[in-house]
């Protein structure tokens, strides 16, 4: 900001937001627009945007939340362009009810906590009205840095974010408030290491293990699956189904559900004893449907290869044993399992995913993949947390986690590190869920089968 003439960034921001609003409105001329204007620069962005829309023939009304502390240059620009102003949130109701578009400039990255009591009713009014709601930078009231929502917040149809995505736009619950997100590049120089990163197709394509001319099944990696029980043989079958599509050259199964596995997947190497008797693998998956088989979990944790621990295995894994391991460990809890490991409520984990996943990674000295509406993957330390952008509600189906653990274990066996294996596994799994669902319900086996389509889609 220091190197640019005063107001340059704000003009770039306003130009981008105006373009997005015009797209949404279809026709700017004759439309009715209400600006919700807070006391900071977020309100300034809204005012400059309003001025641009007014110049293009929109009827623009600014509701000033703190009339004595409003961005002065933005307000002057709006007035010059013919916009009208109402002073105080108590006058907002009538204009909002008539509006085609409401622009939320109450607070941006300078906000703390949920909306204040005078601003909170505006969020409700905007939501109840028929107007489209566009948030400037982020929906007011959500926490930009963590995705937490501690109180009232605006629910937007579209968020136009400036310079860079904020964690709050990518992590639930805040993500749900943002609607679709459009990034406007305003030429900010960004710090090197982000707090959060999301892989895209090209990143995943570069990480997927593709066999070379010299490869044989052992060099591609063998993944061991220690899962399932007499009571839950299906978990073993689904974990193997995922593992067969994850790029390892062979899948070994060790446990009591070998007959069910071999009946469905004859290519599996099956044994019924303990995992430590099963022969060499390059990575283990332990836990899905394992019931109370603590010995299998301990045997796997004692192996000097990467280990993925899921489901029942999480409850049975000794924390000190995990911490003492030298090979990578990847834990894959859903919110309920993470809550049990952290000794807090499920709601607490769901309300503070980013903090929870970091805490778990620290406590166990392991990489943690926290499943759910937003899947996050964190390794211990301050490196960026990964957020999976491909998730879909259709994946909330029985056995879907078993497929993910097999798939991700296979990627570990093929040589990806725990953070990459977790994020690539989640990415393919989410994409497979979308492709398999295509707008209709799916079972976990459909997701496993669609992993190949997801793989091709990424490589295209
Ligand atoms: N940085 C950049 O490079 C660029 C930044 N840009 C823009 O600036 C925005 C950041 O502006 P900012 O720093 O002025 O803070 P902002 O978000 O407007 O809010 C602070 C004000 O809100 C108030 N307030 C606080 N909490 C509240 C609550 N819960 N509920 C209600 N009110 C609350 C608080 O009031 P106070 O505590 O002082 O009473 C304070 O005055 C950024 O998001 C982007 O839009 C772009 O123009 C381009 C380049
Ligand atoms: K805002």
Entry summary:
The protein is of the alpha/beta class. The chain has helices at about 10-25, 40-55, 70-80, 95-100, 120-130, 165-170, 175-180, 200-205, 235-245, 260-265, 295-300, 310-315, 320-325, 335-340, 345-350, 355-365, 400-415, 420-435, 445-460; strands at about 30-35, 60-65, 85, 100-105, 130-135, 160, 180-185, 195, 220-225, 250-255, 270, 285, 305-310, 330, 365-370, 375-380, 385.
List keywords for this structure.
single chain, 460 residues, alpha/beta, Rossmann fold, 2 domains, ten-stranded mixed sheet, seven-stranded parallel sheet, 16% strand, binds ligand NPW, binds potassium ion, ADP-dependent (S)-NAD(P)H-hydrate dehydratase, lyase, YjeF_N_dom, NADP
Textual characterization of the structure:
The chain is of the alpha/beta class and 460 residues long. It folds into 2 domains: 8-190, Rossmann fold, CATH 3.40.50; 201-459, Ribokinase (UDP-N-acetylmuramoyl-L-alanine:D-glutamate ligase, 3-Layer(aba) Sandwich). It is 41% helix and 16% strand. It has 19 helices and 17 strands. It has helices spanning 8-25, 41-55, 72-80, 93-98, 120-128, 167-170, 174-178, 201-207, 233-244, 258-264, 294-301, 312-316, 319-324, 335-342, 346-351, 353-364, 400-413, 418-437, 444-459, and strands spanning 32-37, 59-64, 84-87, 101-105, 132-136, 158-162, 180-184, 196-197, 222-226, 250-254, 269-271, 283-286, 307-310, 329-332, 367-370, 376-378, 385-387. 56% of the residues are buried. Residues 1, 9-10, 13, 38-43, 45, 106-113, 115-116, 119, 136-137, 162, 186, 188 line the site of ligand NPW.
